[in-house]
Amino acid sequence: MKAKEQALSHEYLIDVLEYDSETGLFIWKKPVARCIKSGMVAGALNKNGYLFIKVGKYIYRAHRLAWFYFYGEWPPVDSYQIDHIDGNRLNNSIRNLRLVTNAKNAKNHSLYKHNTSGVSGVCFCTLNGKWKASIVLNQKHVHLGYYNKFEDAVAARKQAEKEHGFTCRE
What we know:
It is built from five helices and ten strands. It has helices at residues 3-7, 10-16, 62-71, 102-106, 150-163; strands at residues 17-19, 26-28, 44-45, 51-55, 58-61, 80-84, 97-101, 122-125, 130-137, 140-147.
């Protein structure tokens, strides 16, 4: 457990914040700082789209606070992460949060910003003029083949995702 997690008791969290497990929102119960008033929605977005909340002297990710608030214990940090099932980093309702291994969470990665095909693991190879399909399994790139048609490369990628337990978010 991290030092900042040890510094926050479940009792104090419940005392200063109200968590709505259906909406995932945190509301301040008490004015714990000059800029905070009772009834205000807690949190601010970071550049990666996660909601952060400062409680005491530490800043916490809202989804981790939701887990702690609801279950009364912090999720293990060594080999597990909290995954947003629907991929929406702002949806911190408890039914949208699940504890998964680091490997499982890596299978849920959203589309990278530099992706130009619109499909993870599919790109156009200018050297041979074909669509390339690939997937990352156990931290290794696996080549799925070259295809004349974009749709065939997408189908190969989707089939590999299904076979290897990737989360479908369509």
